[in-house]
Amino acid sequence: MSWQEGVAIAVVLLGLGAGAFLVAQRPSFWIEFGSRVAKALLPLAWQFVGKRMPPEEEAAWREAERRGQGDEWLRERRQKQWKAD
């Protein structure tokens, strides 16, 4: 590493440290930041958490689980969904 790279890295780290120090002095920023991030990510997370299978598919999946083939059934279902999309 040359001395120019060392100086550049030091300046960047110093700038990041100074920025973090200034932001840390204002806890209200972190509260607002956290609430905005949560509001932005909640709909995205709900798409994955809130999905349910239709009752017929769930019954078929549970039957496959009883036979010990639940993972294979889910894999086939995902492949069918990907092909449909």
Give structural attributes:
single chain; 85 residues; mainly alpha
Describe this structure in words.
The protein is built from 4 helices and no strands. The chain is mainly alpha-helical and 85 residues long. Keywords: Membrane, Transmembrane, Transmembrane helix. The chain crosses the membrane at residues 6-24.
Query: What's the number of extended β-strand segments?
Result: 0
Radius of gyration: 25 Å
Main beta-sheet strand count, sense and barrel state:
none
Could you list the spans in which at least 5 consecutive residues all have pLDDT below 50? none
What class, by secondary structure content? mainly alpha
Write a concise synopsis of the structure shown.
Keywords: Membrane, Transmembrane, Transmembrane helix. The chain is mainly alpha-helical and 85 residues long. It is built from four helices and no strands.
How do the helices and strands line up, and which of them pair or pack?
Elements: H1 3-24, H2 27-49, H3 55-67, H4 70-84
Helix pairs in contact: 3-4
